[in-house]
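ERR on first pass: missing label on line 2. Operator R.T. fixed the label and resubmitted. Corrected input:
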Amino acid sequence: MNETTPTLLVNDLRFSYPDGHQALNGVDVVIRRGEKVALVGPNGAGKSTLILHLNGILNGGEQVQIAGMPTTRKNLPQIRAKVGLVFQNPDDQLFSPTVFEDVAFGPLHMGLPEDEVRRRVGYALAQVGMGDFAGRLSHHLSIGQKKRIAIATVLSMDPEILVLDEPSAGLDPRARRALINLLDELPLTMLVSTHDMLMVRELFPRMIIMDEGRVVADGKTAVLLEDTTLLESHGLEKP
Amino acid sequence: MHVNTFDRYESRQSAIHQLDPRVKVVVTVLFIVANALLPDGAWLAFLAAWALLLFVSGAAQIGLGWLLKRSLIVGPFLLAAVTVVFTLPGNGLAQWQLGPWTLVPTDAGLLRFVSIFIRSWLSVQMAILLTATTQFPDLIHALHHLRVPNVLVSIISFMYRYLFELANEAGRLLRARESRSAAGVNGRSSSGGSLFWRAKIAGHMVGQLLLRSFERSDRVYNAMVARGYNGRLLTMNPHHMKSSDWQLGGVGVVAILLIQLVARL
Ligand SMILES: Nc1ncnc2c1ncn2[C@@H]1O[C@H](COP(=O)(O)OP(=O)(O)O)[C@@H](O)[C@H]1O
Ligand SMILES: [Mg+2]
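pass 2 clean. output:
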């Protein structure tokens, strides 16, 4: 991989669900190393469907490439280590009895030795500011704490790109603020789907607007947010 | 709504709490099996088993009253054993007239019943001690590393994690039903509607819960796959047998064997 290979390349991706509904109608996205990109659009635009393609949960084949590697069946184990996918509901992401086990799950299934797994768990929890929580029981945490731990569960895999689906949904103002600060500090390539336009303006220099399974705009956040006609025609509001 | 069915852990710093969970599981299971093997009326052995139990609860700093209260759950199960008092052949102790039936409690029946009572009561208390001194996740680990089949351990683990979510979801559905079943204009039926109506709603709710759990299982599976799960669940063993674990476990096993010996002398 050389310097110009994009971290994420999606090329004319199409997908219909088994019930025949066409959720993606030819999506193109290129994200380069170090970029932090927001993915916005109304409910049903296809954001979550796109995200499920990024590590092969839905099969994108050659149409999706991570750091130059197509998401074919053979590559999936490596792809999954490169793409840190955090789902919307942290209760789905945290499926182990304790926080430690959840954060250790990724590295352990990547086949890393136990010492390295332990080291990564400690590091990932420290990164999200939850260093003291390793021994805690997942179901006793607050929703804000669960979100941070959910992010730690993929940071421990040391991913090339962090992909979050609606991370600030359902958070109270303080938990939301903590999350924004955390995302701001993480030195990682990011693609974040969200309805939180204030967060978009604050955190993401670049934004992609999706509607009806297509990318309808892709550019500088500062510019796109001034285009009220564009925003309104896709059910969005200027913050 | 919050269920605490599994969270019976009593946090202390005792030697029993610190003991490797595998040792605790093995000794507890041995204790229970050995108990079941004690003959009827082996009073001295029962006493010895009880002494062992008292010793463990003392070492674990678990109060006797607390243990006793928890052990009351054996009550309903013992009802099933009451019949042996009347059905086992032996010398009649009395005659009770109950409508058309005559009940004759026998001495052999009574002996059997009291023995069953003591054995199950002791066993249940030991099991309660196990859960009071071991965090549930550690129990799951112990089962895993004692080579209990992976599928079983996974089921227990997911049940532990998601029972809470399920209960929360049920709670939300119940609240939604309550807020929509106001009393009629004439003030009748405070919980809303006929029995039939409520049964129908309950049926819908169970269906909803099933559907939601099913969808959740799909999302959880996705989350596992996204982090590299490929059909083989791996866990780390956070425990290492120390020499004190071996020693205490050994003492437990010897004590259980001695109790058997006492019963058979
Ligand atoms: N499992 C599914 N089966 C069928 N259709 C689905 C499924 N998941 C999502 N869809 C449909 O695909 C479209 C895109 O959904 P989604 O990707 O979840 O949108 P977004 O995340 O942007 O809200 C919607 O019309 C939705 O109804
Ligand atoms: Mg979505």
